[in-house]
UniProtKB/TrEMBL annotation:
InterPro entries: Bact_solute-bd_prot1, TAT_signal
Name this polypeptide is given: Carbohydrate ABC transporter substrate-binding protein (CUT1 family)
PROSITE patterns: PROKAR_LIPOPROTEIN, TAT
Family note: Belongs to the bacterial solute-binding protein 1 family.
Source domain of life: Bacteria
Amino acid sequence: MGIELNRRRFLSVTASVAGLTAMGGLLSACGGGVEQKTGANSEALRSALPNYVPSTSINPDIASIAGGPDVLTDPGFLSYPSNRVATVSGVPGKGGRYTTVTPLWGTIPPSDNSFYQAMNKALGVTLDMKPADGNNYATIIPTMTAAKRLPDWIQLPTWWNSNFSVGELAGSQLADLTPYLSGDNIKKYPNLAAIPTGAWRAGAWGDKIYGIPSFSSGYVVAGTTFYRRDVLEARGITADQVKSAEDLMNLGKELTDAKGGVWAFDDVWTYLFPSWNVPLKWRVENGKLIHKYDLPELLDALEWHYRLATSGYLHPDALAGNNADGNVRFYSGKVLISGGGTGVWNAADHQSGTAANPNFRRGSLDYFTADGKGDPLVEMGPSTSIMSYLNSSLKPEQVEELLAVANYLAAPFGSVEYTLVNFGVEGVHHTMVDGVPTATEEGKKNVQAQTFPFLASPPAVVSNPGSDTVTKDLTAWQAANVKHLRKPVFWNMNISLPRSMATADAAQAVEDAIKDCYHGKKKVAEVKEAITTWKSSGGGDKLVQWMDENVLQKYGTGQ
């Protein structure tokens, strides 16, 4: 169980961070005369979106809390449901045979293994599962699309939308699902209807629904600022004492003992800069689009981080850019405050931490503003970054059959269907150990979390059987901070820039200068110089103008 859920959370967060720079949606403009797809925030898109109908089949131990439209904490389960409910009546398929391709970062199991056979029997179809090497997926898929030889069902991570030209594929090689899923039509598939609306927006192109979401969440952020809760609380320090950037700097001074081999901080920039009200990329002021590089708040944030880097409170390995051993430093107590994705906050992490120190307990600072005034605001990532698509060559009855299969795959956490999809057959692929599905050797070999769940899956939950403290701490942190989440400009909008602007959008020289600054190697003035060069000769001003004219003015902000 731990392997499946931890990997799922890891992939969810990794995908989120990868997609945070694009913020995903509803138009494609890839150059070369390709017709743009429109529709962001249009009435046509609103009518195309499926109506959200939350599942009531299984009640969590810790309920979700809404923080606003499309903003929702993940529900928590302290144990795996023992009274498993079946949410699908009968067999969803009608005997069809289909090919599928998903990325897999791991060992590809045999094509005729016992798990695939059990799944096909339960689904009533034959899915020829053909997982492809995730490390080479970005080059494998374009070869398929160029030859127009896509499988019947394919998973295309949204952070590769531009690589795969998904906007161009929508409606040509990818099937339009709008007639089957829009509005109340989705009620035919209740488990799909339980996927929040925002996730469907992330798979919409040209006012139409194309993608089927997996691992969606109403609480997606780049990450947070962690601290060693056990160590700090033993010294009488609690997270609520940190209410400003200066509070954090002072805490760093108090915690650092370089002679004793303890530094307060590891890298925190990526997860802390929102405290200065710096957006992920864009802001709109007086109807005008502004890039974060043009905001004085960015420079203010860099000034503080440069001061941190030169204060002696940042671990030398972090200054050197060695992040590979960050967790080891955190577990051993050599570093007490560290930024990271929330996917690391799980049972496996707790086990690793307690192996190093029996008292280990991970905590997270609540969001705060740099000056300690007003309410902090943190921009959300896309509702999902894992999206599958059906082939446009499929007949209507085939599309309906596969949507019925997707409905089975999207059954809620702990259901009969979910247990089979994620753990296989009891007694063959898993056994129940202390109420937790635990993989057998057969299950470890063949039940991969990156196959069927990559085609469709239910919304995310928080569950760490055997480590209830982790689940309680993570859900409590989400509940305390959900009110501070906001949708960024172009939220869940799939925007594929003209290829000529890809370099300007990446702004690698500026990002390198920023990294050198928060590692103390360059001063803020040097970052300003890099930004000036980016704006004039690096295409930055042209990028902002294009985005303003072709996205903001035509389709709005996505908020």
